[in-house]
Fold this protein.
Amino acid sequence: MAQLGEALQQRWRERQPDLVIVDFTLPSAGLAAQTMGIAWWTSMLSPCVIDTEDGPPAYFGGLQPVTTPLQQIWHAVARRLTRALQRSLHLCYRRQMRACGLPGIYRSDRSEAVDSPYCILALGVPSFELAQRWPAAVRFVGPQLCTPPSAVTAPNFVAGRRHVLATLSTHLQWVKQRMDGVLRALAPQFPKVIFHCSDGDTAAPLQPAQGNYHRLPYVDYAQHLQRYALVVHHGGADILYACLAAGLPAIVYPLDYDQFDHAARLQVAGAAWWLRDLNGLPALLREALSADEAPSGVHRLQAELQAIQSQARIVQVVHGFALTGAVPPV
């Protein structure tokens, strides 16, 4: 972290920017900017992980809104555990943390010091989240959907047939292999449906089809996602919002990190089915494919995504800052 910060500072001494927007996974870049007196903002892909005073804490398996006193107690305990763990990690690595410009993990106002105190660009929709009270720096600007261009051959879509996409963009290769095995076994149970399973790897070899099951190297969401009737995904922010933007129902199978929290939010919003075990996939597929239309939450969130105009909103915030030196509300 310290080496990255030093390298950035060296570059910025040659040509100093007016503003640095830092991904939330690279706080050392923001701290380096802060040391040089450069304004810096945080770009937050998953707003659910922001430390708030209300709403379910993240990273506890997908907690949902409180409905009982016992749940309220557990949420309070989970929030304290999270803060205690972060303080403990800072204590263990305090020398390295201080070298990066991080003397403490929390500021005096209890906000997280790894995030910008000026502006946190929350790349989501506020109504999708379960918290109501956010740090003052948070600005919801909507998701930034982007599919890198590729030369991969387009999937083959059969006219008159429904298609289901399974995509698990994960570092856990064993999960992809298990999903492949499960889909190969259950595809014959749905003879009128075409199944596509994406490796998410443009360099992966194209494999021969097995009946109505196709394992594909890569599927370009921007070009082809809207042609599917249903998507099975892991709950990553990118595919989650891509499905909502396309108005597609989904079965979400979270695997790690914030994916369980995304699954909880999709379930609360009435926008997806939460698959907790792969053995339950056939039953959920039957339920989803037999539905007359997408869950009501899908259409509501799709309309909100269209209204938020995420790219224009970011330009508006940056332009307002350039004119006044202050972060405007949105």
Remarks:
- The chain has a mean pLDDT of 94.
- The chain has eleven helices and ten strands.
